[in-house]
């Protein structure tokens, strides 16, 4: 297979949802189709959830939530599928946002009974901003849920999407009969017997065929005919170009747990979802089909293997072929690095690979060279854009609780921040360190990991900060900026990159500050230039 074919056959995507909508279950069923796992009932004992992804960190197992973002790859009908799993827990939303910089499309899972939930709204918002193509999967049709048309309306309104149903349920909950696949004009019937099995469905090109009445009964057949007519009237017809431009979003219905409607989703996905896309750098747009390798780090995972205290940097290959034992330029450090054992990910395993293509994720063992967002190239000086830090929501002073271990604490904090677990700010006035996180849970994670991985102990002290605002003066030497710095001295800090940050104690303060110093811009995202 040549280079271009390798690119064409890759689909790198993420599954996003509110916790409990069925992301893990769907992921597992997709793996099942790829033959990547054998056992249909693996969800029941939660092998994927509590095994593969969670073994990376002990704390995760304790809490039973998916802290880690892992990569699951498999082949299906000649297509190489890379799923970038994302933590559902809202406290780890930033992890998910970063992962979204490495996907070419997403599947959004929605619980049919709960409809569109809070976390989904936030994540889809980010996808819309980045114009990521989205497919919606409405899950749990085997349970009583909201009316299918109401769900479509909700998705359209709450998520601000333009939906096109490509499948439609027949009944729901106790009366769930099956799904009509509008995309392939096929009928898939649901019954207790075929639970967990893969059936190809019956072709029903003509919905008016009287056979349909025999198969699902006259009432259901008539209802379906009416509903499909309505769909044709109300919704636009599917257009792949619009989907790829993120202007239109196909919707599938199903039940991940029962493996129902999943194959339809996957078959359509491999046909319409984009292969690796070009990515913008600070100097130019880099096309995946370019021969020279480029890639960027979107995730760092520390101590995946407790026996070998190592870090793994997850690199998305943007262009060219990443080769083992080859020198690449770490652009930010201006340093050449060579990797003797790059990992590729297959289902729940990782193995050493010689070559990786655009769209693939390579895991590089790291001894502290990488930070989130770093770019690797064959020598070209360019850096990929788009892994911003968002303003944290929770802030605390961090103190060293064991004076004998200050070095360990500094090292631990440094590395955890490189991984993007939280953000560290150093106050200008007294050099005190402040940790900012998206969720309160991270403070515990940090404390636990400092102790278990670095042998350091820390304590926290409350600090009244509402938001961190990155400061951008219009004129560095203006009197206005000097006054701002003098008046706000107590609240100014530096982030890890040395950028000036204003730690504002309330929304009101931010508003007043903006009014008083109109030429000093305040940003809620670290990357604003
Ligand atoms: P998440 O990753 O989005 O957080 O969700 P996950 O897949 O873990 O699913 C959450 C719960 O919803 C699980 O039940 C799962 O079995 C169930 N579920 C997923 N898909 C369907 C579906 O199509 N129909 C029904 N009825 N349930 C579904 P649990 O009881 O929390 O866990 P478990 O013991 O079943 O693993």
What does this structure look like?
- By secondary structure, this protein is an alpha+beta fold.
- The protein folds into 3 domains: 3-169 and 236-272, Rossmann fold (3-Layer(aba) Sandwich), CATH 3.40.50; 279-377, P-loop containing nucleotide triphosphate hydrolases (Rossmann fold, 3-Layer(aba) Sandwich); 394-523, Alpha-Beta Plaits (2-Layer Sandwich).
- Helix content is 27%, strand content 28%.
- It contains 15 helices and 31 strands.
- The strands form 7 sheets. It has an 8-stranded antiparallel β-sheet with strand order 27-24-26-25-29-30-28-31. Strands 2-3-1-4-5-11-6 form a 7-stranded mixed β-sheet, sandwiched between helices.
- Strand 8 and strand 9 (186-189) form a beta hairpin.
- Helix 12 (406-419) packs across helix 13 (441-454).
- The longest helix is centred in the middle third of the chain and has 17 residues, at 218-234.
- Guanosine-5',3'-tetraphosphate binds at residues 17, 19-25, 43, 46, 88, 139-140, 142-143, 255-258.
């Amino acid at each position: 297979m040549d280079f271009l074919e390798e690119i064409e056959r890759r689909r790198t995507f993420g599954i996003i949802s509110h916790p409990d909508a069925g992301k893990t279950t769907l992921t597992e069923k997709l793996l099942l189709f790829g033959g990547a796992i054998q056992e249909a009932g693996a969800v029941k004992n939660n092998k994927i959830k509590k095994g593969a992804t969670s073994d990376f960190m002990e704390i995760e197992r304790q809490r039973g939530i998916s802290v880690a973002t892992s990569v699951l790859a498999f082949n299906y009908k000649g297509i190489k599928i890379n799923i970038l799993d994302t933590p559902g827990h809202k406290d780890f939303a930033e992890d998910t946002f970063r992962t979204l910089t490495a996907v070419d499309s997403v599947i959004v899972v929605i619980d049919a009974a709960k409809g569109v939930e809070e976390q989904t709204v936030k994540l889809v918002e980010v996808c819309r901003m980045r114009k990521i193509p989205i497919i919606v999967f409405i899950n749990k049709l085997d349970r009583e849920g909201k009316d299918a048309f109401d769900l479509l309306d909700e998705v359209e309104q709450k998520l601000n999407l333009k939906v096109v149903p490509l499948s439609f349920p027949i009944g729901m909950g106790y009366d769930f009969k099956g799904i009509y696949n509008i995309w392939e004009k096929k009928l898939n019937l649901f019954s207790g017997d075929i639970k967990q099995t893969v059936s190809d469905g019956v072709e029903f090109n003509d919905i008016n065929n009287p056979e349909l009445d025999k198969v699902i009964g006259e009432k259901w057949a008539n209802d379906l005919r009416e509903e499909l007519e309505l769909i044709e009237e109300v919704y636009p017809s599917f257009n792949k170009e619009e989907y790829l431009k993120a202007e239109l979003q196909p919707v599938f219905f199903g039940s991940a747990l029962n493996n129902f409607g999943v194959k339809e989703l996957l078959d359509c996905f491999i046909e319409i979802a984009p292969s690796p896309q070009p990515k913008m750098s600070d100097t130019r747009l880099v096309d995946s089909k370019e021969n020279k390798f480029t890639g960027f780090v979107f995730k760092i995972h520390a101590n995946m293997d407790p026996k070998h205290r190592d870090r793994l940097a997850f690199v998305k290959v943007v262009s060219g072929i990443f080769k083992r034992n080859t020198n690449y330029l770490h652009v930010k450090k201006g340093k050449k690095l060579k990797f003797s054992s790059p990992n590729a990910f297959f289902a729940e395993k990782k193995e050493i690979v010689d070559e990786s293509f655009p769209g693939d994720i390579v895991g590089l063992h790291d001894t502290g060279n990488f930070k989130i967002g770093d770019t690797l190239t064959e020598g070209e000086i360019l850096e990929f854009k788009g892994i911003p830090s968002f303003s944290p929501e929770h802030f605390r002073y961090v103190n060293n609780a064991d004076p004998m271990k200050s070095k360990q604490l500094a090292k631990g904090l440094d590395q955890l921040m490189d991984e993007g677990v939280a953000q560290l700010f150093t106050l200008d006035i007294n050099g005190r360190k402040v940790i900012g996180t998206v969720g309160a849970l991270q403070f515990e994670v940090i404390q636990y990991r400092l102790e278990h991985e670095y042998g350091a102990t820390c304590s926290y002290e409350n600090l009244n900060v509402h938001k961190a605002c990155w400061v951008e003066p219009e004129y560095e030497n203006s009197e206005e900026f000097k006054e701002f710095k003098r008046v706000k001295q107590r609240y100014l800090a530096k982030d890890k990159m040395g950028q000036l940050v204003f730690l504002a104690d309330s929304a009101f303060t931010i508003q007043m500050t903006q009014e008083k110093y109109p030429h000093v811009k305040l940003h809620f995202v670290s990357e604003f230039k």
